[in-house]
Amino acid sequence: MTDSTGLVLRGSNKTSMRASNERLVITLLHRHGTLSRAELAARTGLSAQAVSVITRKLETEGLIVGGEPMRGRVGQPSIPFALNPDGAFFVGVKVGRRSTEVVLGDMTGQIRDTLSQTYTQPEPGPVAAFVTDAVARIMAQGDGARALGIGIAIPSEMWNWGALIGMAPEHMAGWRDLGLAERLAEQSGLPVYTRNDATAACGAELMFGSADLPADFLHLYFGYFIGGGLVLNNRLYDGPSGNAGAIGSMPIGWEGRPRQLIELASIHLLEQALPHGRILTDGDEWKVPQPVLDAWLDRAARSSAHAIAASCAVLDLDAVVIDGWMPAHIRADLAARISAALPGFDFSGMSMPQVVEGSLGRHARTLGAVAVPFAAHFLIDQGTLTPASGT
Question: Could you name the CATH architecture of 89-199+366-377?
C-alpha cells in the first residue's frame, strides 16, 4: 500500500533496542516496498552503521533481499532492499456464514496454498473439524511447515446470528463454547490470534491492499452480512471489545422505522431475491437478473450512504473504502452509487469523505487473518508514526 502521509518511524541507536529496530526496518519495507540503506537511515533516524548491521542480519536470516545496485549517482551505488516473500509464512483462517477458507500467506500477502469449503449453514462441529484438518494439512507440506502463527477471522458472537441465517438457536449455541483458537493452538503449537472478520478485512486492505489510502478511513465489507472496520492515524482500531467500526449494526431510519444496516445492505438479501438463493458459493461471477441486481445495489448504496453520513458526524473521515465478496465490476458500480448518494445528505459541519474501491475482494478477510500474526511477529505499531522533519 502506498504511504502518502509523509510520516516516518523513529528508531533508537541503543543496542538494547536492536530487536525493535529490526521491526522498524521491516515495517518501513512493508509500507514502501523498496528502500536503500540511506533511505532507511533517513526515515528512522538510525545511524548508517546501525542500518547496515540490521540489513545484513535480516538479509542473512532471509527476511529481506537486496536488489540490483542503483547507479548513476555520486558515490557508491545504493542497493534497494525489499521484504523476501519466502522469508516467513502464516496461516490464515476465515470462518463465515456460508464458507470457510484456510490459507498459507507469505510476507507480501500472497496466498501460497488454500483449502476451502462451502455450506448452507455454519454447523459448529463440522466447521471446526474442517478447519483443524485443513490447518494440519497445510502445515504438513512445503512452506506450511515454516508457519510462525495462525490468525482467525470470524464474526463476533457467531451464536447470535441464527435468526438472520435461518438456523435454529440450539444449532448455533455450539459456537459459544467451541474454542476454535484453543484447539488450533494445542494442535499446532503456534500462537493463535482471533479478530472480527470485517475488522480483519479492513486490516488486510491497510496492510496488503493496493489502494492509495489516507491516515483515517472507514472500511465497508459486503459479505453475507455487511460489516465494517476503522483505521485512525494509520492504525487499525479494534476498540476495547474488538467491535469498533461495526457499521453493520448501525441503526438508521428507513421507511418509517429504525433498522440496522445489516438488514438493508447485506448480500444475503440479494440471495433471498433469487430462486436458487446462492451467490457467494457460486464462484466469482454473479448470475443475477439485472433488475434484481439494480434493486439491491440501489438500496445497499442508499442505506450505506446514510450510515456513512451518520459516521462522519462522529468521526472526521478522509475516505470510505468499499469492498466485498463480489465481482470487481459490481464493486465499482456499488462504490459509484454510494458516492452519488452521499451529496443527498446534509454535510453541514462535516467533511464529505472520498469513496474508494478496495482491492482484495473475496480474500480480504482471510488475508486479514494472515496479517495478524505477521504484524505480531514483525511490525511496529503503526500508531507510533511521528511527523517526518523536512518532508
Answer: 2-Layer Sandwich (3.30)
